[in-house]
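Revision sheet: structure tokens.
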Amino acid sequence: MVDKIKVSLEDVLKNTAWMENTTRQAALEKLKAMSLLNTLPEQGYDDESMEDEFKDMIMSTKNYYKNKKTIDREELKSNLEKLRQPTERSDSAGDTSVMNAKYYKDRNQIGTFYVILYFC
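Predicted:
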């Protein structure tokens, strides 16, 4: 899957008329240097793990704003817990329970997890 994404991006870069050649070359070099970050979900997807993960998130069937505030609060709490912890390039790209594949420009990486790659 990631190889297909990189091939597609390379094709777009090579055929983009508005881009200057020096910019195009720099973009192609960056694309070739792009690494892949594969992660496994930290917790399983069984009912017990999901219940434990989201036990503090009480959602409403009628109030989108309240749901959004609840999600934002839980995300902030999670991010604050990670704030002072050391990170490495090989660390997980994010919460794999809500992502499938994403480009991280600060690391020049495509993050995905094994479950997706297995079925591609």
